[in-house]
Predict the 3D structure of the following.
Amino acid sequence: MAEKITFEQGMQELETLVRTLESGQLPLEDSFKAYERAVVLKDSLNALLDDSDKRIRVLTETGDEPLDPIEEE
């Protein structure tokens, strides 16, 4: 079953993993695990972005466009 995370949570974890990997301080096996987790997170975040893009496209195609900002008089 896929893990449910928010985009923000996933980005935060991914950024932490990247910093950790870039530091070069992890043992090799831990680096592999961190890299594998980063790939899973990247795929999950891409899926979230794709879903969001589809939702926006559906809304704009059906005419339910966002409201215009209130214009100052």
The chain has two helices and no strands. The mean pLDDT is 87. Helices lie at 7-23, 28-61.
